[in-house]
Amino acid sequence: MTTKTIPERKDVAASDQWDLSPLFDTDDAWEQAFNAVQTDLEGYSAYQGRLGESAAVLQEAIEFDLDLSRRLERLYTYAHLKNDEDKSNQVYLGLYQRAVSLYTRASELSSFMRPEIMAVDEERMTAFRESAELADYRFYLEKILRLREHTRTPAEEELLAMSREMAQTAGQVFGQLDNVDLKFGTLADDQGREMELSHGNFTTFLQNPARNVRRQAFFQYYERYEQHKNTVAAALGGSIKGDLFYARSRRYDDCRAAALFSDRMPAAVYDNLITTVRGNLAPLFRYFDFRRQALGLENLHFFDTYVPIVKDVDFQMPYQEAVDTCVAALAPLGEDYTRTMATGLNGSWVDRYENRGKRSGAYSSGCYDSPPYILLNYEAGNINSLYTLIHEAGHSMHTHYSCRHQPYVYHGYTIFVAEVASTFNETLLSAHLMARYRDDPRMRAYLLNREIDNIRATLFRQTMFAEFELEVHRLAENQQPLTLEALTVIYRGLLEAYFGDRMVIDDVLALECLRIPHFYSAYYVYKYATGISAAIALAAQVMEGAAGARERYLKFLTLGGSRFPLEELAVAGVDMASPAPIEQAIAHFDRLVTQLEAVYSQL
């Protein structure tokens, strides 16, 4: 029997890899650029102590800083993308670490800038901001001046900047363990084919119609986390303590306030999300009941929650067909959008398939001077791969529009609005596929099932993650220990709340909190849940042909980071300060469950 293994990087066709030459043609070119930036960093000394002299001096200093930041981002982007191609490649791990170190050095040398800007008296700064020299930097300065009460002395700022590289250790330890050192062994699928279990195909195994295969994959996967649970818990605890250190150092009330401040995001948005979802779990429970009955199970386990309820639909979509499908689904956004996206996805934007050592999952990444690259681990037999492709394409097109319409200083949009662009695309894909298969009730049931599971994973599950983050950070803030037991007890309690009595909670599932990479970026995951809520509302407007809806949405994509996120979403046509979009998303989920029950009864 032949065992299917994960290929080495060198065995992946060049046409299936991204092309990083727009960043640097060679590693030597990267080295030359690195050395030039390293030398030019000393230029910060020419501005230290002078930012309050005049608007012209401040303008010159800002532009020097932005130019170096732009060059640093190019260096970092190349290094991190090459590092993610194969985490075991020590050459590119070295480049990545050097890029991070250079970032740290730049942060140290530029750390005087914000305190000096904030030290300029209010009347003088008002005159500066109204001057012709600084007309292009008014919002940039506004965001800095908001931080006055959370900024320390220049010497303290320098120490905080120096600590950043050290503070990343917990996340780096987790990343190396999770992506390189953990090996999950092999197991046979329902056809008796022996396959290597990996992050990339774990969900595919959970979608297998044979319950014994799903069960074995689930327990075999979590066995590795069981073996390393104390190490991973220590890494997560260290990351949370780092969040607390920076929150207290900068005089925020708590870690959440520190994380939300830069987006000017009210805590009420976070609280509205948790309260609204917690208060509306009935449709989710109804879906779990339906899933259990449709699968003919006495008890539902977590490893039963991914398998398609319609078992005999063989989904196969090669990458090229997936690109064509994405283009058709996004036709409501116009030809400029779809033509640009197709060129990138068919060309050199995407690193398509899994190889040994490659970073798991998927993302969109790039910089102002590069294409908006996409890392995938695409599998033709997994419909999630199609959705992942259109999701990441949403990010990349958002980046494309932002870079095309904004100057460098404002091109970078926040994660809060980023998740809207990606999940908006997924919503249009679901509608497109439902229309494509309108005369096929079996496929419609399959797709409804898929969309329901997507909303479940993005809205309900990410809200549960958000509540976990809030609770564990409060442990740290109240000087309570962040032990393995403390973390898993909280997570177990949330599993019981969000699944009710509809699912058997296997003990190892409490270890799930130890394998979520986003927990190393504090208060990130709630943005998925708010993002899908906004996306469902905006997609409905566009698909229904509401007057100006497409134009408002495309305008939103061009805004980059030129406004605060709630203001940008208001331009798009949705008010995320209200619980209404979350309620609308849950109502949409409820309708989908009703439709699935009706379609399934016809099979």
Keywords:
three-stranded mixed β-sheet, 2% strand, two-stranded antiparallel sheet, Butyryl-CoA Dehydrogenase, subunit A, domain 3, 5 strands, 603 residues, 62% helix
Strand content: under 5%
Strand order across the biggest sheet? 3-5-4
SSE series: HHHHHHHHEEHHHHHHHHEEEHHHHHHHH
Q: What is the alpha-carbon Rg in Å? A: 24 Å
CATH fold title of the domain at 22-167? Butyryl-CoA Dehydrogenase, subunit A, domain 3
Number of helices: 24
Low-confidence stretches: none
Rounded mean pLDDT score: 94
**Largest sheet: number of strands, sense, barrel closure:** 3 strands, mixed
Helix content class: 55-70%
Specify the overall morphology: globular
Query: Structural class given helices, strands, pairing?
Result: mainly alpha
CATH superfamily descriptor of the domain at 22-167: Oligopeptidase f, N-terminal domain
**How many E-type strands?**
5
N- and C-termini, Cα separation: 37 Å
Description of the molecule:
By secondary structure, the chain is mostly helical. It has a domain at 22-167: Oligopeptidase f, N-terminal domain (Butyryl-CoA Dehydrogenase, subunit A, domain 3). Helices cover 62% and strands 2% of the residues. It contains 24 helices and 5 strands. It has helices at residues 27-40, 55-85, 90-110, 113-119, 122-130, 138-145, 154-167, 169-181, 199-206, 211-227, 229-249, 255-261, 267-278, 282-294, 319-329, 335-346, 383-405, 415-436, 441-477, 484-499, 526-543, 549-558, 565-572, 580-600, and strands spanning 186-188, 194-196, 350-351, 363-365, 373-375. The chain is globular, with a radius of gyration of 24 Å. The mean pLDDT is 94.
